[in-house]
């Protein structure tokens, strides 16, 4: 069932699956995608958790106010959902944009975070110049150009050849992302830098990197591992969307980690 909550200047759309009495698990999507990116994890996750998926502001069924957005806003959106469902705390799993949003929650709302899974992300994603170029690309050529670029980064060539149907579905997802929402989140990523703060993370943390990820290379997650006490790092054989290309391994890693908490 779909729900929505007002957060600052946006309406955030979310849905809940699983046992209402089970521990809460909040999933946060990557830039350009929607909450449907987690479809491969849902059968297993919902057997153990009350799973909350939502569309980041500017994406999917959430509203897309004109940006720029900030990482603080994205983090507050996640907290608004937890408040709306009456969850004092949750496990938080995010990928890419969702990963740095989860990292923000671990830093700024530590009592609300039981466990952190940070996948294919970094404390600083990309460079200012890269995001400036991406913003210009959207203005000049629209979301189709971004969708083509994303598929090359999100999936290895082998996966694109093996599963063109999935690649087409994700390309359509990016193509349909509201330009204002995508641009707003590009600005948030352009400006976000948590590198000087991450050593204060106290939540148990699992890091998931991908060997062929050019968008958020493994070095960014190794940087976090070296600074977050007790953080574990798993590396999968995929490109950026490890939860899709290596769905079974990703799911097993997350469930194995959370089971110990």
Descriptive account of the structure:
With 261 residues, the chain is of the alpha/beta class. The chain has a single domain (2-259), classed as Rossmann fold. It is 43% helix and 18% strand. The protein is built from 11 helices and 8 strands. It has helices at 42-45, 71-85, 97-108, 128-141, 143-154, 157-162, 164-175, 179-191, 218-225, 242-245, 247-259, and strands at 2-7, 10-17, 24-28, 50-54, 90-95, 113-119, 205-210, 232-236. Strands 1-2-4-3-5-6-7-8 form an 8-stranded mixed beta sheet, sandwiched between helices. Helix 3 (97-108) links the parallel strand 5 (90-95) and strand 6. Helix 4 crosses helix 5 (143-154), helix 4 packs antiparallel against helix 8 (179-191) and helix 5 packs antiparallel against helix 7. The two termini are 28 Å apart. The model has no long low-confidence stretch (mean pLDDT 98).
């Amino acid at each position: 069932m779909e729900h929505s909550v007002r957060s600052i200047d946006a309406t955030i759309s979310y849905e809940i699956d699983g046992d209402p009495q089970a521990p809460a698990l909040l999933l946060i999507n990557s830039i350009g995608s929607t909450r449907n990116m987690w479809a491969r994890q849902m059968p297993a996750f919902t057997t153990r958790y009350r799973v909350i998926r939502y569309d980041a502001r500017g994406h999917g069924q959430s509203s897309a106010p004109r940006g720029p957005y900030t990482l603080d806003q994205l983090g507050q959106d996640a907290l608004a959902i937890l408040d709306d469902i009456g969850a004092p705390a949750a496990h938080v799993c995010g990928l890419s944009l969702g990963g740095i949003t989860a990292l923000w929650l671990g830093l700024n709302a530590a009592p609300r975070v039981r466990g952190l899974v940070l996948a294919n992300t970094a404390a600083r994603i990309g460079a200012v110049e890269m995001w400036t170029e991406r913003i210009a690309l959207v203005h000049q050529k629209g979301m189709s150009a971004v969708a083509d670029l994303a598929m090359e980064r999100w999936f290895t060539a082998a996966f694109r050849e093996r599963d063109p149907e999935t690649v087409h579905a994700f390309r359509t997802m990016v193509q349909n992302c509201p330009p204002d929402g995508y641009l707003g989140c590009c600005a948030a990523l352009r400006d976000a830098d948590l590198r000087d703060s991450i050593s204060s993370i106290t939540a148990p943390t699992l890091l998931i990197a991908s060997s062929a990820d050019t968008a958020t290379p493994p070095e960014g997650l190794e940087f976090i591992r070296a600074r977050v006490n007790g953080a574990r790092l798993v590396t999968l054989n995929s490109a950026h969307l490890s939860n899709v290309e290596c769905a079974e391994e990703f799911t097993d890693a997350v469930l194995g980690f959370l089971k110990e908490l």
